[in-house]
Design goal:
Blueprint lengths: L1 E8 L8 H16 L5 E6 L12 E9 L2 H8 L3 H6 L10 E6 L5
Antiparallel strand pairs: 1-3, 1-4, 2-3
Length: 105
C-alpha cells in the first residue's frame, strides 16, 4: 500500500480553512478518486518539537492506494478539478510525498 501525503507549510500569515478542507475539498477528492482511494486522513498541525514554536505544517492530507500506478490512473483525469479547488481553502503551496506504508495501526 502507498500513501500520498499533501503537506501544507505553515508560513507566516498563511490562510487555511480546515472546515472547508475536511467537508468540501475531501468530498471532491473522494468523488473524483472513487474506490481507487482506500482511505483518507487529515491532520491539523498543533506544534513543533520545540516548545512554543508553531507546527511546520498547518495541515496534512493523506490518501491511501494499492500502488503508485493506481494513484496516478485515478488522479490524472481529475487533477485540474482537485488542484483548482485549492484557492477555496488555502494560499499555502502544498508539498506532495508518495510513500510506501511499511507499518500502520
Amino acid at each position: 500500500m502507498i500513501k500520498v501525503s499533501v503537506l501544507y507549510p505553515n508560513t507566516p500569515g498563511v490562510r487555511f480553512d480546515m472546515t472547508y478542507y475536511c467537508e468540501q475539498h475531501m468530498a471532491i477528492v473522494r468523488e473524483c478518486l472513487g474506490s481507487a482511494c482506500q482511505g483518507i486522513a487529515v491532520d491539523a498541525g498543533l506544534a513543533s518539537a520545540t516548545p512554543g514554536e508553531a507546527a511546520p505544517y498547518i495541515a496534512m492530507g493523506h490518501l491511501y492506494f494499492d500502488s503508485v500506478a493506481v494513484f496516478e490512473q485515478s488522479f490524472a483525469p481529475h487533477a485540474a478539478r482537485i488542484m483548482g479547488d485549492l484557492p477555496n481553502f488555502t494560499d499555502s503551496q502544498p508539498l506532495v510525498q508518495i510513500s510506501e506504508v511499511r507499518l500502520a495501526p
